[in-house]
């Protein structure tokens, strides 16, 4: 009997002693594993080399004013360009419409770069105005791979042509809402008597930056509680559209960043609340240069009936001149220049009114 009582007390005493160990070590064993794989180290190093080359090659410093350095280009009136950055994991279904869009411009005031997921096996979109397919890596929804892909596009565009001044990120489901000339004039202005030219004004980036959305708390802790600290306090965490138009100054800021990237590249435990590409760029630019951004995007998206994080997808019966006119309308200073999301079979009705409606502005 005495031995049984001794054994009983020993068991109770052992359990009491083990409670602190369970408290401290259980989270390491019981916490869920991230549902995403981290970005491979070789990919990180290869990207870092690309970004450093782009930063070193540029004639404009991210810390300088947003006006372009003409003297270093050897001319007082360079013809600045817009770099269109297509981030896609499917075929470029709307390449004929974009071809018509670029064809509406007589001088070569643009460049086109495509990051195509290597696992997608895309069809070559044909001529597509000599678009450049950049070396690409795997991308995954709700992961930092989409941030890396966007940065790869910007770095490749900077290395390719020093006259690329604006960097417009679009997707395979995006369409233009205006002619190229209208887009160029909106972004870079028109100098009378000189055709298109750059005027010495402060150009801003068009990127949505929101700070009072109900989704922010759940998005902030998607990687775990307090994981974003100290680099990203909650009161500086922002959300915005994945698609934007950045100046060269801000593109270089993005490529130079290492501090915030260390946090945003981490895999999420809650993938349903993890959309790093919607937070990294708005948060970084809001912290670095909020006055240099308009705080709104030029790409129209319809979120009224979104499903699983996807916006409304327009179908052929919805495509009409009235839809184009409606999508252009904005409450901000500028009209919307692009729109998404359109199903691939919208191509024919869009082409039917390309010249009479979309590019007739």
From TrEMBL:
<dbReference type="GO" id="GO:0016757">
    <property type="term" value="F:glycosyltransferase activity"/>
</dbReference>
<keyword id="KW-0472">Membrane</keyword>
<keyword id="KW-0325">Glycoprotein</keyword>
<keyword id="KW-0328">Glycosyltransferase</keyword>
<dbReference type="GO" id="GO:0016020">
    <property type="term" value="C:membrane"/>
</dbReference>
<dbReference type="Pfam" id="PF02485">
    <property type="entry name" value="Branch"/>
</dbReference>
<keyword id="KW-0808">Transferase</keyword>
<feature type="transmembrane region" description="Helical">
    <location>
        <begin position="9"/>
        <end position="30"/>
    </location>
</feature>
<protein>
    <submittedName>
        <fullName>Glycosyltransferase BC10</fullName>
    </submittedName>
</protein>
<keyword id="KW-0812">Transmembrane</keyword>
<dbReference type="InterPro" id="IPR044174">
    <property type="entry name" value="BC10-like"/>
</dbReference>
<keyword id="KW-1133">Transmembrane helix</keyword>
<dbReference type="InterPro" id="IPR003406">
    <property type="entry name" value="Glyco_trans_14"/>
</dbReference>
